[in-house]
Design brief:
Its EC number is 2.4.2.4. It catalyses: thymidine + phosphate = 2-deoxy-alpha-D-ribose 1-phosphate + thymine. It holds the Pfam family Glycos_trans_3N. It comes from Roseivivax marinus. This protein is an alpha/beta fold. It folds into 4 domains: about 80 residues, Barwin-like endoglucanases (Beta Barrel), CATH 2.40.40.20; about 55 residues, Transferase, Pyrimidine Nucleoside Phosphorylase, Chain C (Transferase, Pyrimidine Nucleoside Phosphorylase, Chain A, domain 3, Up-down Bundle); about 220 residues, 3-Layer(aba) Sandwich (Pyrimidine Nucleoside Phosphorylase, Chain A, domain 2); about 80 residues, Alpha-Beta Complex (Aldehyde Oxidoreductase, domain 3). It is about 40% helix and about 20% strand. The chain is built from 18 helices and 18 strands. β3 and β4 form a beta hairpin. The longest helix is centred in the middle third of the chain and has 18 residues.
Amino acid sequence: MTDTLALVPAGIDTYRQPVVYMNEDCHICRSEGFAAQTRVRIDLEDRWIIATLNVVGRGAWLDVDQAALSASAWAALGARAGDKGAFSHPEPPVSASMIRSKAYGDRLDQAGFAAIVSDTLDSRLSDLELAAFVTACAGERLDEPETVALTRAMQGAGQTLDWGGRTILDKHCVGGLPGNRTTPIVVAIIAAAGHLIPKTSSRAITSPAGTADTMEAMAPVALDAAALRRVVEAEGGCIVWGGGLALSPADDHFIRVERPLDFDSTGQLVASVLSKKAAAGATHVLIDMPVGPTAKVRSEKAAEALGVRVSAVSNALGLNLALHISDGIAPVGRGIGPTLEAIDVLAVLRRAPDAPADLRERALDLAGHLLDLAPDGVAGQGRDRARALLDSGAAEARFMAICEAQGGFREPGTAAQRIEIHAPHAGLLTSVDNRRIARIAKLAGAPRQKCAGIRLLVRLGDRVDEGQPLYELHAETAGELAYALAYAESQTGVLTLSEEGP
């Protein structure tokens, strides 16, 4: 008997959580006392990972002398066909006691947070332990010094891009507003103005589209740090997926656990945003905070509290920061979903007569504010400069150049399945529920299916006739279309119409 098993790929996507599958009759399971959910160390040559065990019943698909690895575990271990791994109990994570301390109300310093971040990246912490950490930090349980310490610990765990002391502009929206895809437009304007704006963005986790998803409908986004630098040096800006760049890499692990819990934590939100901005080498950052009853930031009071914390942590990190409070009452543009949002972005950049005016105006507000924030900016003149760059076609030309530098531009596609949702009665459109309209788009397949989502056909304040189309569902398959349609038809108040006639 040995402590090794043949490694095989399970072909199962567990996102960022390494998982190992072993037969219940495996001699290692019996001798080591491994059971379901046991944390297991797997060594292969000079590499190792810690994975969570799932036990496969006897006579099932896995032989007793094999261990199957999830996709993330296989990649992290660098396994190949024919490899054998050694299995053992891992040492208890050093940071477990720090998580318990925080759960009991103690304050942590940067060393404590750094230990938690390090154990997270090494997969030493189980999802239960990560959930305990996220819970212990929820609400207002992280004070200002702790938020600074966590931000620095998260940034320090990955690489930080060095731009040689040059001014680097960046922007971030705290989210919660479907269709608010201003980033590609802002990046194009800022780069056309001669500034550097290396924009790293996320893919959607719980929304119908992230900026990276929308950009990927037009150009490649999975660039490494060297390719990112080449694009920025050539064109002044980029819009790439940050997940492959090791910039604040622990953040995705925390988000993976935090999202299903649906906890609001000012400290963790600030640490998430600013650790990535600092890691990207930003010197001047604009934070957009849409405020609305169904947005992520639901009140002016909440926006004020978040702004105070963001400003304090930015000062501690040496970032020049500006805040932009925007209207978060209803979705922006017409499209909700990667391709549909990309179509809106291109319409604005191409100055199409039917381009969504609200998306254009929001992008100009943000680009103007960011130009004002730059060291050579003149207060109050940024928006006019941004408009001139957009209206002249300079922003469009720069966006196309950025796309080509990232691997080539492609026109967004169209969904195979579509159906219109009609008004049940006449009235004035008085509200849109951001959360539920986003859920419908997700049920239609977004963002996994790039062309899936919703195309809005009416705007707030429009008078609508009975039977008039309110929005159009887009899906790639009939099954996904039916799934989204069933939910949409079961809901009231997604789009609220007053009872008065038009």
